[in-house]
């Protein structure tokens, strides 16, 4: 999983680099367009296009029949039954391409979340750093945070045995990319901290080497898995998004734009959906 995440990090970092200093929505529109093109290609290659086109014609015929014989209840009920059957058939035909798209688009979501779900810190903005302990223990592990120049440690360490975490409060003073160092015994563990503006890869968690943790938190390589510290978190603020005047997650805009682009490009690319 680590190697795959390294490849995907490089891919998405390179893709979004030209849009780093632009408003986040511009990069999201480009990503949505590319996602729609990829989805249409996969759908076309993995689905039975002729059968889908035939089922769609049958669905349209049923709708026309309902409108044409709107004073004949028997004809309407018969057409509605056929309409339901054809819709279920269409759904079944769509499951295969959807299955092919599930894994790549899930991976894309987890990586895009690092760019669009969170924003970098601003100079002077305080944040919590958490060292998560893997095994239940009674006493605080000997873990010390060393902050580089430009980062001020305001408080900590604070040990919370019930949550199995050690917390510090820090404040960046200048923009940049920093490496926080946690000394745990004879090991030094690092965590990236990003301060500035624009769209950057922001990793709120350096994961443990467990598969699920790496899958959900692909922004950095996992910790070694030995020693008391299992993962390190930085409580980055979430990036605020507004679509049509309402606040909502970034992925709502991604999916909506991707759907609009797919509908606009389907005929040009010769895809029946």
Domains, number: 2
Q: Strand-residue fraction?
A: 15-25%
Overall mean pLDDT stands at 91
Order of helices and strands: HHHHEEEEEEEHEEEH
Beta strand count: 10
Q: Largest sheet, if any?
A: 5 strands, antiparallel
Would you tell me the structural class of the helices and strands? Answer: alpha+beta
Helix fraction, binned, reads 40-55%
What does this molecule look like?
With 273 residues, this protein is of the alpha+beta class. The protein folds into 2 domains: 2-17 and 24-117 and 244-265, no CATH class; 127-234, Immunoglobulin-like (Sandwich). It is built from 6 helices and 10 strands; from the N terminus they run H-H-H-H-E-E-E-E-E-E-E-H-E-E-E-H. The protein has helices spanning 2-16, 24-46, 49-68, 73-116, 211-216, 250-265; strands at 127-133, 143-146, 151-160, 165-172, 176-184, 187-195, 205-206, 229-234, 242-243, 246-247. The strands form 3 sheets. A 5-stranded antiparallel beta sheet has the order 3-4-1-8-7, with no helix packed on it. Helix 2 (24-46) packs across helix 6 (250-265). The mean pLDDT is 91.
List keywords for this structure.
Immunoglobulin-like; 5-stranded antiparallel β-sheet; about 270 residues; 3-stranded antiparallel β-sheet; 2 domains; alpha+beta; elongated
Short description:
This protein has helices at residues 2-16, 24-46, 49-68, 73-116, 211-216, 250-265, and strands spanning 127-133, 143-146, 151-160, 165-172, 176-184, 187-195, 205-206, 229-234, 242-243, 246-247. The protein is of the alpha+beta class. The protein has two domains: 2-17 and 24-117 and 244-265, no CATH class; 127-234, Sandwich (Immunoglobulin-like).
